[in-house]
Every structure is written in C-alpha cells, then in structure tokens.
What does this fold into?
Amino acid sequence: MYIPKIAMIVDDEAHMRLYLKLILKEIGVETVLEAANGYEGLERYKQDRPELVLMDINMPIMDGLDALEKITEFDEDAVVIMMTSVASRQSVEKSAYNGAVQYMRKDTPKADLSRLIIETLEELELA
It folds into this structure.
C-alpha cells in the first residue's frame, strides 16, 4: 500500500492538528507539515508539494473550500481530504466538485479516521 512521505494538515485548531498528526504518523507518514488557515495551506502546498492534505473547512483568512479550489487549480492531481465538524450537503458537494478525494467528519472515532484515510489511499493507488 502507498503511504505518502509528506502530508500536510490545514486546520486553525492546534489541538486538531496535533491529533491528526498522530494519526498520520501511526499510519507511516514520515513528515507532517502544518498550516493554520487556508491561505497558509495554499502557500505551503505550492512550496512543499505534500502528497496528501487533510483540510478543515471552517477557518479564518481563507476557508478550506476556497483553499481546495486554489490548490486543485495549481495541481489537478492534488490529494485533498476535507474535514469538518459540521457537515452540510452543500459543503460535501462543493468539496467533491472542487476535487476533494474524500470528506470526513472530525468527530469520527480515531480508528475509523485511520481506516478511512488508508482506504482512500488504497483506492487512489488502484485508480
């Protein structure tokens, strides 16, 4: 199974970045970059080209949906998983339309988050 060497977490909540970083490290990601808002995430993406991005939707300065759109305009092969505390049909649809490969709720149990990330990576490997 393909495990990215470099991933990035874009979330305005430091505790959420730490939590997701632990999950990514457990599945074998070597380097986990962090950004506190969509603008920082976009700039880091352009600079460091992570192989996987976990992106919150609701953030200050630039939200995750706008950052997703700009990242996929910059790199149509970007692998971005959107994450949110409050899922709405509109945000799910906009995420898919703008190129997100998966959409997850932050309150998903840790084991399920790990499994969903791994399954998403496996599906992409087969595509």
